[in-house]
Design a protein that fits this description.
Structural class: mainly alpha
Distance between the termini: 50 Å
Number of strands: 0
Low-confidence stretches: none
Number of helices: 6
Radius of gyration: 17 Å
Strand content: under 5%
Shape: globular
Mean pLDDT: 93
Order of helices and strands: HHHHHH
């Protein structure tokens, strides 16, 4: 069965954009997938009616992906690749260890703090939310992301690693959106 030419042209266009504008392309894809994760949370987890959807919240999630998650993740993967390497089992274990022991805890603080500020929380409420949500979210992070990153760092070329992570993160972002919307 032949693959339609349109599918190949979308993939080709993506590869061109990724080659010419890697950071911008990955920022836009992260923003799009984070916004989509929020909409999944609102529509299917929270079961909101159309008139109850919070499009400002969706735009905020999209902005976090566009301006923080996409660029920071791409830059982090480049640093790991440059200083640790890109091939081999030991290299992959070192990258996953650095990613999960250094990057993930810090990034979750930034992510949850940014969401909290965008929700209008003052510093005291933000601190309370971090104290109550962060340990559980970090624990759940460790249930998912080490295995994803083992696969990602071992099999996926650097230029596609953010796409893989953001694709899996669609479900993760749905979870984060739902968790951080509770008791705003």
């Amino acid at each position: 069965m032949a693959v339609p030419a349109s599918k190949w042209s979308v993939a080709r266009m993506y590869r061109k954009l990724l080659t010419k504008y890697p950071l911008a392309t990955q920022a836009v894809q992260a923003g799009t997938l984070m916004a989509l994760g929020d909409q999944i949370a609102q529509n299917f987890v929270e079961r909101r009616k159309v008139q109850e959807l919070d499009f400002v919240r969706t735009a905020q999630f999209g902005s976090i992906g566009l301006f923080i998650a996409g660029p920071v993740t791409r830059t982090w993967y480049g640093i790991l690749d440059k200083y640790i390497g890109s091939k081999g089992g030991i290299v992959v274990l070192k990258k996953v260890s650095c990613d999960q022991l250094l990057f993930a805890p810090a990034f979750l603080v930034v992510l949850l703090s940014t969401i909290g500020f965008l929700q209008g929380n003052d510093l005291e409420k933000l601190k309370m939310k971090l104290e109550s949500e962060y340990p559980d979210i970090l624990k759940n992070n460790y249930k998912l992301w080490p295995m994803v990153q083992l696969f990602n760092f071992y099999f996926i070329p650097l230029q596609y690693q953010v796409l893989i992570v953001q694709s899996i993160a669609l479900l993760w972002n749905t979870y984060i959106s739902y968790r951080t919307s509770l008791g705003k």
